[in-house]
């Protein structure tokens, strides 16, 4: 049995314990994902289980792609995976809901609203309720709604103890109503509705429980309550549920992930066999030592030791750059040097950062030198204006009740439907509690008589009505075409008839780029040519709605990858550069005041460090421009936790030494020569400000005889003061 011969004994046990619940808890690089793919292959190939009786869930589409490739590669027949349910939680739920839509009273043509669309709907809900956007931050309210859904709380069960929660609950109710009018679901709905479907519809639940003989979950530590509940409900039937995770890599707490789900799992499946894997196959001992030193400072964890037989390897390079440009240049120099020395290929390298905004400076360094790179996330293809426009048209052809899409393109390109007309249509539809499209149908005399009677006389001038009817006619044509043309043909027809193609191509260079993007979308849509016509459009729209940031990642070309630490989860690279190891950035300023948040920041750094197989670079700057200002930066506290034996380069210590050790700085600011012993405040110190309250000092520097202090406040973010004026008091 060659399948098992490449596994160590506990891994083999994890693969072959196929009956009953199994929990694999193990550190990074210990083969959790490998065990999961081998187990799927083992079940299919050795035990003859039919693939459609297997379900494997993971966190990103990218990880799902890798999982499916790896499993298929282990099978004798490349077709061997056919029918297996494999994907992210969201994509699997979307599929379940689509299949069962009619039974649970959902429009099977539902569309999925992305984050932008969701924010539009929150704003609309606020307007409908006469609540001021400036007073009630739409993003904050959206986050509250999203958290509630991840906890399976509906507007009715949403707990209210404060005024803000009362507002959030009202907006939540209106938000759901607006989604329903558009026949739309948001990302969180996919999970919540799937859970409710299984909970409330016994026949459906039994059907899935009987079908799914084996359930496997990767990255289990990052499941939220809804995801956990889904797994539990599906697994209750046959109880052959296999979950793998590492509590130290839980990095989605801010999205409701809760590694206490591991505890819940143990309670719900008390007979679960627990398997620990201790050998790391990914990284050198030096990298593991650094990782262990870093994570062992967290309190809420079970200590564990990782070992490798890969040997010590090269030391970790600590480097302080002058600023973010210098940081980017240093990375490029190193990548070029590694390639010249034959130590690594550019494609083996990854550059990771805490926040998307940090990619810009690194990208600039690449662009200046003409070196290609791959960027994951940030300027997401699907966020581009022209792509959103084209998709809005496609969505309308599929489900014309989608108000967000209708508003988006009703006058793009301009077709004499002004904002006043749209407003009028909108309030007319609102009085009837109907979608905008229903409004258009009324106007066109196509609505049900009962509704027409209720609607009465329409409120439009002759010219406005003509313009609206012109659009309505186009739209009807596309709806009809949606079920007979392939998605690519439909897109062509829409681009043509809507005038969008001509409108976009105004001859400028930017226009050419935009048009190229639309063509790229066409290429994506052509991938659905082979599906039955009545399913192709739905499948295409569903997939593009669910692509996450990580999907832009293309493994083949030999270029370094730029990505956030969050997106790096589960991946591995020969050489890893982590940039911006600075107080306020990693750990992020949002978490400086919050012990749980700080532990999560540490886990995030740990995830980054443990992506590296052979070489690791930890970078920080002397000063960094952020939010339009250049600020002196303080090295991350995480750097101080690394044992001296594993690093080369300068280890940040006292403030004074820190300020004199950057590399090839273009220009040194005067303050760096100031003796540090005159500083009144030091990083980490707790202080009180008369207006902002208590906070934590992040940096303090002498500036022309005064002391400049930046302080992180829990709710106000980071503020900068002059000590002589600010009246800061130590607490
Ligand atoms: P993470 O927690 O980072 O997701 P993981 O536990 O899922 O890590 P894998 O990605 O499965 O770890 O494995 C890490 C690397 O080690 C992979 O390249 C994998 O192929 C390799 N590996 C794991 N087990 C073995 C083994 N028994 N023999 C050889 N290579 C192995
Ligand atoms: Mg893994």
Attribute tags:
six-stranded parallel β-sheet, Rossmann fold, 22 strands, binds magnesium ion, alpha/beta, globular, 731 residues, binds adenosine-5'-triphosphate
Mean pLDDT: 88
Our count of domains comes out at 5
Helix content: 40-55%
The level-1 CATH class of the largest domain: Alpha Beta
Main beta-sheet annotation: 7 strands, parallel
Given as residue ranges, the uncertain stretches (5+ residues, pLDDT < 50) are 549-553, 654-677
Helices, strands, pairings?
Layout: H1 2-5, H2 9-16, E1 22-26, H3 32-45, E2 54-58, H4 61-74, E3 85-88, H5 89-100, E4 111-113, H6 115-128, H7 138-150, H8 163-181, E5 184-186, H9 187-200, H10 202-211, E6 214-217, H11 225-235, E7 241-245, H12 261-268, E8 273-277, H13 285-295, E9 316-321, H14 324-340, E10 349-353, H15 359-369, E11 374-375, H16 385-398, H17 403-409, H18 419-431, H19 436-443, H20 449-455, H21 462-482, H22 487-497, H23 500-504, H24 509-526, H25 533-546, E12 561-564, E13 573-578, H26 595-609, E14 612-621, E15 623-626, E16 629-632, H27 637-640, E17 647-648, H28 655-658, E18 686-689, E19 693-703, E20 706-713, E21 717-722, H29 723-726, E22 729-730
Helix pairs in contact: 2-3, 3-4, 5-9, 6-7, 6-8, 7-8, 9-10, 9-11, 13-26, 14-15, 16-17, 16-21, 18-19, 19-21, 21-22, 22-24
The structure holds adenosine-5'-triphosphate (ATP) and magnesium ion.
């Amino acid at each position: 049995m060659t399948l098992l011969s490449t596994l160590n004994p506990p891994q083999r046990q994890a693969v072959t314990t196929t009956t009953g619940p199994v929990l694999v808890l193990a550190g990074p690089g210990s083969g959790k994902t490998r065990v999961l793919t081998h187990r799927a292959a083992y079940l299919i190939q050795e035990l003859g289980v039919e693939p459609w009786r297997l379900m494997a869930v993971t966190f990103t589409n990218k990880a799902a792609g890798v999982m499916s490739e790896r499993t298929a590669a282990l099978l004798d027949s490349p077709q061997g995976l056919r029918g297996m349910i494999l994907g992210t939680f969201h994509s699997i739920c979307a599929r379940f809901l689509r299949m069962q839509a009619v039974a649970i009273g959902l429009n099977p043509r539902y569309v999925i609203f992305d984050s932008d669309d969701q924010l539009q709907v929150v704003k609309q809900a606020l307007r409908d309720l006469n609540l001021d956007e400036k007073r009630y931050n739409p993003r904050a309210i959206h986050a509250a709604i999203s958290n509630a859904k991840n906890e399976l709380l509906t507007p009715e069960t949403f707990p209210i103890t404060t005024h803000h929660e009362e507002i959030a609950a009202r907006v939540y109710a209106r938000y759901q109503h607006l989604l329903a009018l558009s026949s739309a679901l948001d990302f969180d709905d996919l999970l919540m509705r799937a859970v409710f479907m299984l909970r409330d519809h016994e026949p459906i639940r039994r059907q899935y429980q009987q079908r799914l003989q084996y359930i496997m979950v990767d990255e289990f530590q990052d499941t939220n309550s809804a995801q956990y509940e889904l797994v539990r409900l599906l697994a209750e039937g046959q109880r052959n549920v296999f979950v793998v995770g590492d509590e130290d890599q839980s990095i989605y707490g801010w999205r409701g992930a809760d590694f206490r789900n591991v505890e819940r799992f143990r309670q719900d499946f008390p007979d679960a066999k627990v398997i620990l894997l201790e050998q790391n196959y990914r990284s050198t001992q030096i990298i593991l030592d650094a990782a262990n030193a870093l994570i062992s400072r967290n309190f809420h964890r079970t200590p564990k030791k990782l070992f490798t037989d890969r040997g010590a390897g090269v030391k970790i390079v600590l480097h302080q750059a002058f600023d973010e440009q210098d940081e980017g240049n240093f990375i490029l120099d190193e990548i070029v040097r590694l390639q010249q020395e034959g130590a690594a290929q550019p494609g083996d390298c990854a550059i990771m950062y805490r926040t998307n905004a940090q990619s810009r400076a690194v990208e600039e360094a690449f662009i200046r030198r003409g070196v290609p790179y791959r960027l994951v996330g940030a300027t997401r293809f699907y966020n581009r204006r022209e792509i959103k426009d084209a998709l809005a048209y496609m969505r309308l052809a599929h489900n014309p009740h989608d108000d967000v899409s209708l508003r988006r393109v009703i006058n793009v390109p301009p077709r004499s439907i002004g904002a006043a007309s749209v407003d009028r249509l909108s309030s007319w539809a609102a009085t009837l509690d109907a979608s905008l499209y229903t409004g258009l149908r009324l106007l066109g005399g196509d609505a049900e008589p009962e509704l027409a009677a209720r609607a009465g006389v329409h409120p439009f001038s002759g010219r406005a009505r003509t313009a609206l009817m012109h659009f309505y006619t186009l739209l009807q044509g596309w709806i009809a075409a949606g079920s007979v043309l392939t998605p690519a043909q439909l897109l062509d027809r829409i681009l043509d008839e809507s005038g969008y193609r001509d409108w976009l191509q105004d001859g400028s260079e930017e226009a050419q780029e935009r048009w190229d993007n639309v063509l790229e979308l066409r290429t994506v849509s052509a991938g659905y040519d082979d599906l039955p016509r009545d399913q192709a459009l739905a499948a295409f729209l569903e997939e593009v709605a669910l692509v996450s940031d990580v999907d832009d990642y293309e493994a083949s070309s030999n270029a370094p990858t730029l990505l956030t630490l969050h997106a790096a989860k589960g991946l591995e690279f020969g050489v890893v550069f982590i940039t911006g190891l600075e107080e306020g950035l990693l750990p992020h300023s949002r978490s400086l005041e919050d012990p749980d948040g700080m532990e999560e920041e540490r886990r995030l750094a740990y995830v980054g460090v443990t992506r590296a197989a052979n070489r690791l670079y930890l970078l920080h700057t002397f000063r960094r421009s952020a939010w339009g200002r250049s600020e002196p930066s303080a090295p991350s506290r995480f750097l101080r936790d690394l044992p001296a034996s594993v690093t080369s380069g300068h280890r940040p210590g006292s403030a004074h030494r820190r300020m004199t050790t950057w590399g090839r700085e273009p220009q040194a600011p005067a303050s760096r020569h100031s003796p540090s012993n005159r500083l009144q405040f030091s990083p980490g110190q707790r202080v009180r400000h008369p207006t902002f309250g208590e906070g934590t000092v992040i940096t303090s520097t002498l500036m022309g005889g005064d002391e400049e202090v930046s302080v992180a406040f829990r709710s106000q973010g980071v503020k900068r003061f002059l000590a002589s004026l600010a009246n800061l008091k130590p607490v």
